[in-house]
Write a structure and sequence with these properties.
The protein is α+β, with helices and mostly antiparallel strands. The protein is built from 18 helices and 38 strands.
């Protein structure tokens, strides 16, 4: 490399733990490190193992292979100069090379859910009713392999920490790290006057460990500088390893949370390859049903151009499937699966999980997983609301979302359409009733049905309950109090689902009542509910016309409590057209999509605001407040391509091709930002630089 390549890589373990860094091997974010462990999965993520600082001695010459940015503006060492290649598939692999030698480094982060020491097949475990206790581990394996004309000595200095993954560490007099050295093994733990850290250990297959405790001060994280955040960290080194190497030899290391146990499989020269094979087998099993069905194109691909692109590049589909699995994690508090909203800094969010569910679990035919995610979020329903998120520490969810419960019903409907799992509907129908009752009677944040038109409304100060939920100085930037358009379009779909299910259950119960006269729900009661749901749906369908803005041929974004109409052109109108049950007529849908494709569509998604709006911000950059102001005021959101394509196909069919070229987005997926991932957001203005999480 002529200059440091700061594109990123990511590994995850199904528990919320992850490893991440850059191609040039420098840390540019607070979130970079080789083991950030979710100690209360998927939360309480803690940086324990930052990295190994590697150098190679050949013939008396010592070459520093690492790259570090320091606060004084220096870069040292400059190992990126010897870095010849990086590949992500099948595992992250770096190759440093000169004429007479080559050193490779590989990473594998094993799946964290285990049974009998082997990776758990989560889908089968869920389908079988979660029959046995599972074990959890947080670990990463690193392998160095050397090839050269002369003998070499590899030095690996260990850099560690013990801090929340959002924060940086500082060298403090009262902060110490204990180390217990054993043959080919080292146990580490942070100790402070009021805090005992998490124990973890490092193992290696060959080499000699040298205790040599020292603090390294003033690492600089330039990405945090750009984000207007604290950008300096100190890391502790308890010592270093020396490994003599001949050609075609190497060393494997494993970092693992917890103390060594006799049940752990010995670390040997074959451990790394066994772990890679086990992970590949696990992924194969995850998507086995999709591969065996013979309908993967129909199941996965809703659009012809995308189908053609995947057919021309079959490895791309496998990369996408692998990327999708990184977001599926296990939540300890509910003993069930959930979905991370994004790496590296987001946790699991209700709305995000339910929006992602059809793509992550239904199109991939992971139906037991889809059912498990629905059970997870349904379990936490309170007062008719599904949680928006969970705090990073602690298990009490936060319920500041008007639409998460509606997304739950929409995803339940899509699951039932895909599986015909009517027994699951019987189990969940009471929750559907609970949500409907809470919304009609009224619940938190003054969420309620407006009796005059049947629409959902809300009104609470200092709150933001839709997906556009940023705050500036404690105040919501885009409050959207009143009746948001996509929420009410989703409310219409909810009522249609509820009516359809009640009709089906009424017929089913009518057949069962002769055999089970003591049924809790009578067919007559369910039939009455069906009529009420469908009558309410018809009222809402008619009332949705209040959102039609004939001057712009678009939908008003929000009808406020004081009867004002927000005419901002936002993608929420596209969302309103994308649900399974749509309450808008054909001619309006086509006009809306025409405006959206002209004003909002970019090569990477939809802008959050029309560039012609005076409030538009085209660059997602700067400090926290500057970025928050841009977040929903013009920034492009990649996830909105799904709703746009669904709406386009609904209102235009196959007659008019979707006006979207997939090539730039997949080039981004393969070669930009975090390789093998799609960025959360992009600038609204060209060249649409990738931003945010992944």
């Amino acid at each position: 490399m002529e200059k440091p390549d700061t594109r990123e890589w990511l590994l995850t373990n199904g528990l919320g733990s992850f490893a991440s860094g850059t191609l040039c091997d420098a840390r540019t974010r607070t979130y970079h490190g080789w083991l950030l462990a979710a100690l209360d999965p998927p939360g309480q993520r803690t940086l324990l193992f930052s990295h190994l600082e590697a150098s190679l001695e050949i013939g008396g010459e010592i070459l520093g292979l690492g790259t570090n940015f320091w606060t004084k503006g220096t870069v040292s060492p400059t190992g990126y100069q010897w870095l010849q290649s990086f590949t992500l598939d099948p595992i992250p692999t770096w190759t440093w090379r000169q004429e007479s030698w080559q050193l490779t480094r590989e990473f594998i982060m094993p799946y964290g859910l285990e049974q009998n020491g082997e990776p758990l097949n989560l889908d089968r475990w869920l389908a079988a009713g979660r029959p046995r206790e599972i074990e959890m581990s947080h670990r990463i394996l690193i392998r160095y392999q050397y090839r050269g004309q002369r003998s070499a000595l590899l030095r690996l200095r260990l850099l560690i920490g013990d801090r929340n993954f959002h924060n940086q560490q500082r060298a403090e007099p009262e902060m110490r790290f204990s180390q217990l050295v054993a043959p080919r093994q080292l146990i580490l733990q942070a100790i402070q006057s009021d805090y005992i850290g998490t124990p973890w250990h490092l193992r290696w297959t060959q080499g000699h460990y040298h205790p040599d405790a020292i603090w390294y001060w003033h690492y600089h994280y330039p990405e945090e500088t750009q984000r207007g955040l604290t950008d300096c960290e100190d890391l502790y080194s308890p010592g270093y390893l020396t490994i003599p190497l001949e050609s075609d030899t190497g060393v494997t290391l494993e970092a693992r949370v917890g103390l060594p146990e006799s049940g752990h499989r010995p670390l040997d020269a074959f451990s790394f390859d066994r772990t890679v094979q086990a992970e590949q087998q696990r992924l194969h099993q995850c998507f086995q049903q999709l591969e065996q069905s013979g309908t993967e194109n129909a199941a996965m691909v809703p659009e012809k151009a995308l189908a053609s692109l995947l057919k021309a590049n079959p490895s791309l589909k496998q990369q996408l499937l692998k990327a999708s699995d990184q977001f599926i994690v296990y939540r300890v508090s509910s003993s069930s699966p959930t979905v991370m909203a994004g790496y590296p800094w987001f946790s699991d969010w209700g709305r995000n999980a339910l929006i992602a569910l059809p793509g992550l679990a239904l199109s991939t035919q992971r139906f037991a997983l889809a059912k498990g995610i629905l059970e997870t979020w349904g379990h936490y329903c309170q007062q008719g609301l599904i949680p928006n998120t969970f705090p990073e520490t602690g298990s009490q969810p936060i319920y500041n979302s008007i639409d998460a419960a509606l997304w739950w019903i929409e995803s339940l409907g899509l699951y039932l359409e895909a599986t015909q799992d009517w027994a699951f509907l019987m189990q969940q129908y009471g929750l559907v009733q609970k949500i409907y009752k809470a919304f009609t009677v009224g619940t938190l944040y003054n969420i309620r049905v407006d009796a005059s038109d049947g629409l959902l409304t809300w009104d609470a100060p200092d709150a933001a309950l839709t997906w556009m939920d940023t705050f500036i100085m404690g105040q919501p930037l885009i409050p959207r109090r009143g009746k948001p358009v996509e929420v009410n379009a989703l409310w219409y779909s909810t009522l249609c689902w509820a009516g359809k299910w009640a009709e089906a259950l009424s017929g089913f119960l009518s057949q069962e009542v002769e055999n089970q006269p003591d049924l809790e729900l009578s067919p007559g009661t369910i039939a009455n509910q069906a009529r009420r749901y469908l009558q309410h749906a018809q009222q809402v369908r008619e009332s949705l016309q209040q959102f039609w803005n004939s001057d712009q041929n678009y939908l008003y974004d929000t009808l406020t409590p004081n009867d004002q109409r927000d005419a901002s052109i936002r993608p929420n109108a596209v969302l309103a057209l994308s649900f399974y049950h749509c309450g808008f007529p054909q001619e309006q849908g086509r006009e809306i999509l025409k405006i959206a494709s002209d004003r909002l569509l970019t090569p990477y998604g939809l802008r959050s605001l029309d560039p012609n709006n005076p409030a538009y911000v085209g660059s997602y950059s700067g400090n926290v407040n500057q970025r928050d102001r841009a977040y929903y005021q013009g920034t492009t959101w990649s996830w909105l391509m799904g709703p746009f394509i669904r709406a386009w196909k609904r209102f235009n069919g196959d007659e008019v091709p979707v006006p979207f070229d997939w090539e730039p987005l997949f080039k981004h997926f393969e070669a930009q930002a975090c390789l093998g991932s799609i960025s959360e957001v992009f600038d609204g203005d060209p060249p649409y630089s990738p931003q945010g999480a992944v």
